[in-house]
Amino acid sequence: MRATTRVYWRLLVAGFRRQSRYRLAALGGLVANSTFGLLKVVILFATVRAGGGAVEGYDVGLMSAYVWISQGLLGSVNLSGRSEMAERVKSGDVAVDFLRPVDVQGAAIATEVGRSLFNLLPRGLPAVLIGALVVGMAMPTHPAPYLLGAVSLLLGIVVAGATVYLIAALGFWLVDTRGLQIFYLAVSGFLAGLFVPIPLFPAWLEALAHATPFPAMLQYPVDVITARVDLAASLGLVGAQLAWLLVIGGLGQLLTRAGRRHLEVQGG
Amino acid sequence: MVEVLDLRTRLRPYRAVLASRVRSQRSYRAGFALDLLSSLLIGLIELAEIWVLFHSVVEIGGLHFTQMLLVFGLAELCYSLADLSVGHCDTLPSYVRAGTLDVFYLRPQPLLLQLITSDISLRRLARVAVGLAALVTGLVLNDIAWNVSAVVLLALAVLSGYAMFAAMFVGAAGMQFFLLDGAEATNAFVYGGRYAATQPASVWGRPIVVVFGFFFPMAFTAFLPAMALLDLPGAEWMPSWLGWCAPLAAVWAWIVALLTWRWGVRHYQGGGG
């Protein structure tokens, strides 16, 4: 058991270190995310003011915290649907992965999570810092939301990684998953609460969003860190994230096993 | 007459390349249908992002949802037309890595013209349709005094808006000769610019007015022409008569874009192929 854990830990660290080589890419991402953050601030602040100082519990301080934390998470939470695994399934390289004495799904997600965690340093923290200095934001003053928030944030990253893996695993049957990936790209940001916080949605659309795993990737971690909901509700959100992870992870495991039997690699 | 014939001969290679791209995209029907559908979904979701805000409040920056439809429709139509025809310039680093750009250098045709005509993304037609539908709905629902000058204003706005977004893509391509791995930085003014163009500029603070109002003239693509069309006062530093100056803003955008492109090309020393 300890040996297995160490393998995944090593893969995670490898992903982290690999991502650390792309410094210019991280800087480019930060510039884009911060510009979008400033534009989101003006339109959402105007909405809050038009609502008489608060809409659905969001005042300007909380709205600012929402904007900058969600922009900071953009480099880490995979909302693009693209993954290395999808490329490996398409090219047939995944056949080599199946020969290794580690679980293919576990290894793919561990590497992806490692890369995501690195991105928190050059893209996540600076975005939040820029927001705090340039715009200002309301953040909780006691430690509980931050501790639980760190767990929720990690779960959000893993849920996104596991969902993107699911798309890649469907490639065992579809071969080219680009169509699915673009579909994921189109709906994920909106339903995760990237552009407008989900509580601002009309009731039916809000219910629809909660029925998908997307809020568990972004809206829930942001809600927990900013303490928009109380501690009991925060624990509930983390529980929901765990449930999504179990369902999506289990489904990924089933698809991987079935896909392994179905896999046909052309050429030799 | 001779000149016209000459021009047609000179444009023939570009037409041939574009026609082959169109044929290749239409030959995989199922894939193309899925691409169109995804593109439609992206356009609709972008509209939904604005509509959702108006679920909580009646007006933002002094504009009602129907007035915002006009701003969104203009911006989305112009942006998606530009994306359809020159959007691929934004992926210059992949052309550099694949060595395609070095091939362009071997041909006796202008580099930028070859890059622009090297591809066309027909799937974006679905987003053009979303933009057009929003624009027409906005034109019908709002109280617009229709006369010759309103029609001229609208036509000027669409043409200049298209030119401005196209200039953003070309400028981004020019910068990417330097950025390569950091190409995402240009998303700040290409996609950020599109986002800014769909906003009511009346909510902007002074720094954003300078950046997206004038330097990257995004307010001129949709907000200002829409305000002039609706006969509304506009915003601080941006009176609505500036809507008539959209062609000037387009000229400015192209001057900046072409200078950036030239600067990038001079810097480029080959892909090492």
Keywords:
heterodimer; A: mainly alpha; 0% strand; globular; B: mainly alpha
Question: What can be said about this structure in brief?
Answer:
Chain A has 268 residues and is mainly alpha-helical.
What does this structure look like?
The complex is a heterodimer of chains A (268) and B (273). Chain A has helices at residues 2-19, 23-50, 60-73, 84-91, 94-99, 104-135, 144-174, 178-192, 203-210, 214-217, 219-225, 231-262. Chain A has 268 residues and is mainly alpha-helical. Chain A has one domain (2-262). In chain A, helix 7 runs antiparallel to helix 11. By secondary structure, chain B is mainly alpha-helical. Chain B is 72% helix and 1% strand. Chain B has helices at 2-27, 29-56, 65-86, 92-98, 100-106, 111-116, 125-141, 148-179, 187-197, 206-215, 223-230, 246-267, and strands at residues 234-235, 238-239. Chain B has a two-stranded antiparallel ribbon. In chain B, 45% of the residues are buried. The mean pLDDT of chain B is 89. Chain A binds chain B through residues 22, 24-25, 27-29, 31-32, 34-36, 38-39, 42-47, 50-51, 55-56, 176, 179, 182-183, 185-187, 190, 195-196, 200-202, 205, and chain B through 31, 34-35, 38, 41-42, 45, 48-49, 52-53, 55-61, 179-189, 191-192, 195-196, 199-200, 203-205, 208, 212.
**Biggest contact:** A-B, 37 and 40 residues
Element order of chain B: H for helix, E for strand:
HHHHHHHHHHHEEH
The coarse overall form of chain A would be globular
Range of strand content of chain B = under 5%
| Mean pLDDT across all amino acids of chain B | 89
Task: Give the strand order of the largest sheet of chain B, numbering strands 1, 2, ... along the chain.
Answer: 1-2
Task: Write down the Rg of chain A.
Answer: 19 Å
What's the story with the biggest beta sheet of chain B?
2 strands, antiparallel
Transmembrane segments (chain A): 24-48, 60-81, 120-140, 146-175, 182-205, 225-251
Keywords (chain A): Membrane, Transmembrane, Transmembrane helix
InterPro entries (chain A): ABC-2_transporter-like (IPR010390)
Protein name (chain A): ABC transporter permease
